[in-house]
Amino acid sequence: MASFKKFLAGTAITAAAVAGGIAVYKKLQENKSNADDDFDDFEDDDFDDDFDDLEIENRNYTVLPSDAVVATEEDAEEDSTTK
Question: DSSP character for 54?
Fold first, then answer.
């Protein structure tokens, strides 16, 4: 009777492992087919004209001073006020 229980337990564990493997395989196949559909939207889009309306020649830039330059200017102001 004990060997029959071991056989039943082993069969149940093996069946659960096989069922789990099949479920994982099906899930991976489903995700693979969904991932292929995600890129279909970009095949029809032409990105060449996306930046045509930008005025690159008239672009203004802001110069950010570094900490060393700011410290030097503060030292210069202190020197000029103490003299």
Answer: -
- Residue whose entry in the numeric block shows the structure tokens 């789990």: 20
For the chain, the C-alpha Rg in angstroms (whole number) is 35
> What gap in Å lies between CA 30 and CA 22, rounded to an integer?
12
Site of tokens 């503060």: 74
Domain edges within the chain:
2-82
User: Within a 13 Å sphere around the CA of 81, how many CA atoms are in the beta-carbon half?
Assistant: 6
Give the pLDDT score at 82. Answer: 61
CA atoms of 15 and 5, how far apart (whole Å): 15
Dist. CA 48–CA 50, nearest whole Å: 6
Cα–Cα dist 13/25, whole Å: 18
Give the confidence band of 65 by pLDDT, cuts at 50, 70, 90: confident
